[in-house]
Amino acid sequence: MKTMPKILLLIGMLICTFSAVAQSPQTEAPAERRVRELIQFLNSGNRAAYQKYVAENFAPNFARIPMEQHLGFFSDLQDATRGVEFHGIQDTQPNEATARLKTKLTGSWMALLVRVEAEAPHRITGIGTRAPKPLANAAPAKALSKEQMARELEAFMKKLADADVFSGAVLLAKDGVPVFKGAYGMANKDFNVANRMDTKFNLGSMNKMFTAVAIAQLVERGKLSFDDSLSKFLPEFPNKEDAEKIKIKHLLTHTAGLGGYFSPKWQQTSRAEYRTVDDMMKRVIEDEKKIQFEPGTRWQYSNSGMLVLGKVIEVASGQSYYDYVRENITKPAGMMNTDCYELDKVNPNLAVGYEKEFSDTDISFSNNIFMHVMRGGPQGGGYSTVEDLLKFDVALRSNKLVGAESVKMLLSAKPDLKSPQYGYGFQITNRDGVVMVGHSGGFPGISSNLDMFLGTGWTAVVMSNYGSGSRQPLEKMREMILPAIDTKTAQR
After folding, report:
1. Domain final position from 107, 130, 153
2. Domain that holds residue 422
């Protein structure tokens, strides 16, 4: 269950490859000029002026994005940073420039990328944010002790929470033992209920990890194989021919050629109709009549594919998906605050998700109660806590849920399947020679992430009931952990 937050809607417009650090030419290039103009708007916070700038200076294809989304990007970024300091152009390519910026709220570093048309007046064709590159001649970041990390993260989180940029919980751990943990903001603004460490936050797409582990368990038990055709379990879906082509491994890696699940028909149907895997499969069976490409030839994020795996689990195990996960994953791991709850029932201590609504004069909030699913499933939408996700990490990496070979299969990229940054149900990120595995989850009012730093014992978890809440804590924890890791001994 993954919907890109507003700030990422525009990033998708960009080409995400960047050159080595380049010196700015003496005559400022058009893209660099546009960067400086955008920084001025960020520091002014003037939405009306920015709206006029978008209308007059964005290229037609980019300007076709609804103005609400352009203003959402601007207001999200301004709210999260409270303005920025310009520290030079770090990258240039033809018609493209990336600036190195320092945020005024926390002093964090970020990069702002702008693309422009080749011809005058060089209107803007794309904008995005990303983590900045290290400076070419900068000294290596100093490794902090656990105590220093805890103090620094506590101060960082206080700034975000005091500015109401973050609401949720964070946990930083080494070898399964918390180094720092904290909860901030409100679980329910209507009744002024504070978030706690045991507050259950929506997982978004993070349920996909549980689905993948369940499949690996069934492989170990001889109930199925990663190379089995889908036809063995669902002979008619999406049709007989395609069911033969799709393998279990394709569904696990988003390379099966299936779609995203949240179709217009889903949007028009009562959420109360989707409570079981079979309920959810009815929607997919109606929407997905054939594959969009040959399995294993492309990567395309697919909620439908993960849902189909949930049905495979039911067929292979003889249990409902929910019972299987409880008995074989959450209970053995000790995850007592994790489940797919039916939201029209009484569910203690669930956080309500919120989105900020910006206007020219103030900020208000809307909740996501009528936006997301009534009940989560194999593709996402369940609930958990940061402490339960640490328990999941410990159980997985100690081979309590599946054996060592299965763990390796789950947490390894699959480039042979056109999935170089995704294993079996787990996202894979390589940063400075360190491999981080886990999953993120995003939707309006939902923003969560689990990072397991392979071969190091480090774990970073953030769960937020704000739609963009996890970005800054996630990057801060990565920034602190990476210098403390010896890349020569870390598992690759």
Report:
1. 130
2. 202-484
